[in-house]
Design goal:
By secondary structure, this protein is α/β, with parallel strands linked by helices. It contains 16 helices and 18 strands. The chain folds into two domains: 300 residues, UDP-N-acetylmuramoyl-L-alanine:D-glutamate ligase; 151 residues, HUPs (Rossmann fold, 3-Layer(aba) Sandwich), CATH 3.40.50.
């Protein structure tokens, strides 16, 4: 599947907007007042949640988006609007003095959520004004997304759907509640399995899920129904009996917060771009797999999607020769990906190496690791090195999630190879200055940059060898 250009698309999102707040810090003791950890807050992060996160996901894909919602007239609404406008989202909020902006505060330590505090007072107030704003924006959008979190903003969902369909605009709905009748006539709804079963009853197997899904499509005059099923992936159903079961693409589930927002945003944007429904669902499935690997409400970029869509090569180890690597780099750049490169001996791989490579990878979309040949290592480190031969060192590196390609070189420095490959970012660890890094001049002349990254103190191959030698005496 070729990822479309989303930059010319205009989407209208309406629904429950909220502010997600993350307070983070270290815990080192238990409170003397109660058996709970004491968190010393050192980091604050505000993010848009609910319909705001849907809008952010659309903007991250490159689409233009207008967002309609209802907030309080308070500091949280100011923070929410800042989060959205910095991403280029056109916000149209009804700020009501009598209403509190919905806020979810999460306290975390070491990336673990300890507690969530919700500040909200659901109310349908502002629904009439939202309908009028909705009517005014319909002529300026390609597709409509309704993001319902059952907080009252979409009390008039049926009216909104009617207006949109009369104007010839498709409507994608992320539903809530145990009665989907108010979404009648929508193009597509995207409940998760629990929400779906709350409406149609338990589904013990796929056959039952499909049977009840087809019936719901016919009852609500839907063109399709997409049921998200967590680790079981997604199921796309259409009234004519067509079913598409998509397995999950998540490699690692870190946080499912906002994954449904990513699905509905990607699905709607893909449909607006003209993708067939099945391809739009596949794209949304890939996006969900990326989103759950991130902390908190998260967005997905076109580069990440292009990478997820790329077929897995027959040699999945990532070990590659220079000629093949040049072809792979060319293809990656055609997909809009940023190429990062680093190098080293990596004789006995340890936690410091892993942290360093993870840091290097964060500077782009693809990471190349150039590895000294055995002869090169002996010239640099002495006749007793390397401990592990080149092929074994490359195989271990290729198994790391941060590493895309591993390529050997025979010289003492990788300058020739770097000047041949010309990465966008060259990363080197240690106490070098950027102008001292081999190959750095070539990279800078080509418009790239050189980054100096740190190593973890106390971890080195030499130290490991000394420790083992000591214990063997």
């Amino acid at each position: 599947m070729i990822l479309p250009d989303f930059s010319a698309l205009r989407l209208l999102v309406a629904g429950d907007v909220m502010l997600d707040r993350y307070w983070q810090g270290a815990t080192s003791r238990i409170s003397p007042e109660a058996p709970v950890p004491v968190v010393r807050i050192t980091d604050f992060d505000d993010r848009a949640g609910g319909a705001g996160n849907v809008a952010l996901n659309i903007a991250a894909l490159g689409g233009s988006v207008s967002l309609l919602g209802v907030t309080g007239d308070d500091e949280a609404a100011d923070a929410l609007q800042r989060c959205l406008e910095v991403a280029g989202i056109d916000c149209h909020f009804d700020r009501l003095e009598e209403r509190q902006t919905i806020t979810k505060l999460r306290v975390l330590s070491r990336h673990q959520q300890l507690i969530r505090l919700d500040f909200e007072a659901p109310s349908p107030a502002g629904a009439d004004t939202l309908v009028e704003r909705f009517r005014q924006h319909l002529d300026h959008c390609d597709i409509v997304v309704l993001s319902d979190y059952a907080k009252g903003t979409l009390a008039e969902a049926a009216r909104l759907i009617g207006l949109a369909r009369n104007a010839g605009r498709p409507v994608v709905v992320d539903p809530k509640g145990d009665d989907f009748s108010r979404y009648r006539g929508a193009t597509l709804i995207t409940p998760n399995l629990a929400e779906f079963e709350a409406v149609v009853g338990p589904c013990g197997d796929e056959a039952t899920l499909c049977e009840k899904g087809y019936a719901l499509c016919r009852e609500l005059a839907l063109e399709a129904l997409l049921v998200t099923r967590s680790e079981q992936g997604m199921t796309l159903l259409q009234p004519d009996g067509t079913a598409l079961h998509l397995p999950t693409h998540a490699r690692e589930v870190y946080d499912v917060t906002g994954a449904g927002d990513t699905v509905v945003a990607t699905l709607a944007t893909a449909l607006a771009a003209g993708l067939p429904l099945a391809d739009a669902a596949r794209l949304a499935n890939h996006a969900a797999g990326i989103a759950v690997g991130k902390l908190g409400t998260a967005t997905v970029t076109p580069a990440e999607l292009r990478r997820a869509l790329r077929p897995t090569p027959p040699d999945s180890t990532g070990i590659i020769d220079e000629t093949s690597l040049l072809d792979a780099i060319q293809q990656a750049r055609a997909n809009g990906e940023t190429i990062v490169m680093t190098n080293g001996c990596f004789d006995i791989l340890h936690a410091g190496h892993v942290a360093y490579l993870e840091e290097a990878r964060r500077h782009g979309d693809r990471l190349i690791v150039a590895v000294n040949s055995d002869e090169s290592v002996r010239r640099l480190k002495g006749q007793n090195r390397p401990i592990n031969p080149l092929r074994q060192r490359m195989e271990v590196l290729a198994g790391l999630r941060a590493v895309d390609w591993v390529v050997p070189f025979t010289e003492e420095t990788p300058e020739r190879l770097i000047c041949k490959l010309l990465p966008d970012v060259l990363v080197k660890g240690g106490d070098y200055r950027p102008d001292e890094v081999a190959g750095g001049a070539c990279v800078r002349r080509n418009g790239g940059k050189v980054v100096i990254a740190g190593f973890t103190d106390g971890l080195s191959t030499s130290a490991i060898i000394e420790t083992v030698t000591y214990h063997l005496k």
